[in-house]
Amino acid sequence: MRVFIDVMGGDRPEEIVKGAFMSAKKFGDMKFIAVGDKTLIDKIAAEENAGGLLDVVSTSEVISNDESPTMAVKTKKDSSMVRSLYMLKEDADAIGMVSTGSTGAVLTGGSLIIGRLPGIYRPTLLSRIPNVVGGTTCIADSGANVDAHPEWLYQFALMGSAYMKAMTGKEKPTVALLSVGPEEHKGNELTRAAYALLKKSDLNFVGNMEAREALSGEYDVLVCDGYDGNILIKSTEGAAKTIMSLLKQNVMASTSAKIGYLFMKKALRNLKNYMDFNNYGGGPFLGINKSIIKAHGASKAASVYNSVIQIRKIHEGKVIETIAREVAEVNE
């Protein structure tokens, strides 16, 4: 089993290389190919005393966030991202790829180079957010498709359910539809039509869900278009940062609060770690023929390692095969 690591394109290429080495040390039955600046990769290998753990493919170009995704994918053939995508497509033993590069380019390249599964209207980008019961909740879609049709939302639910089954071991992950009220008739034209499709499906659909319940832990998969999903995720992240900032301000405001902090220090550190995206890895781009994990541009080594764990679970759980089979059955 081979996994390609797109080293360039993110904010911290050194951390991406370290994450690749971390993964190689952990998973001896997998082969990792680092794609990018060979000088940088060799330098980190020497620092980590990890020579020989990675295969290296040297590239000369980088796709930035400022470029047109379609144009960049078509013209920058020697970029670490495009080279990784083509090698992933052509290598029968390759099971996935991790990239911290431009989200638009990853999605465009995945669709154009790797290709969609038969019957998939639009691939979806999933994101997991921590919930209050100690698990994670999957948002499908989280930004790949800002406009959508009811049939697309149904497929997002199907893909999210297959993914969460592999990640959590739950036989029937719960699926909810993001809306403005729990009642069936609530929502806009899109969500009402999607509700009807989900209600008659074989998925474990439990109805509408309001955004304030997103972190309740009652739902495994939240279905929405990419516009609403992206806003939901960023609003949640922003609220969490605000709360932590206000907490810090109040702790520093008085001597008694500072003393109280000393007793709560471990609990607050655990909370911070629980909310750290690096401990969950990136988001899978599903609906295409191979696994691609799009990690945050500011990812640290732990995020790359946790992204590799996702690729492994997607492979072992036969997520892609399950999606292809269930879509084919629905379309019969």
Q: Would you report the number of β strands?
A: 11
Assigned CATH superfamily of the largest domain: Isopropylmalate Dehydrogenase
Query: Overall mean pLDDT score?
Result: 93
Structural class label: alpha/beta
User: How many independent structural domains?
Assistant: 2
Largest sheet properties = 11 strands, mixed
CATH topology of the largest domain: Isopropylmalate Dehydrogenase
First-to-last CA distance: 33 Å
Net shape: globular
Any low-confidence stretches, pLDDT <50, length ≥5? none
Rg over C-alpha atoms, rounded to the nearest angstrom:
21 Å
Named at the architecture level, the CATH assignment of the largest domain is: 3-Layer(aba) Sandwich
What is the count of helical runs?
11
- Which CATH class of the largest domain? Alpha Beta
Task: Please estimate the helix content.
Answer: 40-55%
Order of helices and strands: EHEHEHHEHEEHEHEEHHEEHH
Looking across the biggest beta sheet, what order are the strands in? 3-2-1-4-11-10-5-6-9-7-8
What fraction of the residues are assigned to beta strands by DSSP?
15-25%
What does this 3D model show about the protein?
The protein is an alpha/beta fold. It folds into 2 domains: 1-120 and 287-317, Isopropylmalate Dehydrogenase; 122-279, Isopropylmalate Dehydrogenase (3-Layer(aba) Sandwich), CATH 3.40.718. It is 48% helix and 17% strand. The protein has 11 helices and 11 strands. It has helices spanning 13-26, 38-47, 69-75, 80-90, 103-114, 150-168, 189-199, 226-251, 255-274, 301-316, 319-331, and strands at 2-6, 31-36, 55-58, 94-99, 124-130, 136-140, 174-178, 204-209, 221-223, 283-286, 291-294. An 11-stranded mixed beta sheet has the order 3-2-1-4-11-10-5-6-9-7-8, with helices on both faces. A hairpin with a 4-residue loop joins strand 10 (283-286) and strand 11. Helix 4 (80-90) runs parallel beside helix 5 (103-114). The longest helix is centred in the C-terminal third of the chain and has 26 residues, at 226-251. The protein is globular, with a radius of gyration of 21 Å. The protein starts with a strand and ends with a helix. The model has no long low-confidence stretch (mean pLDDT 93).
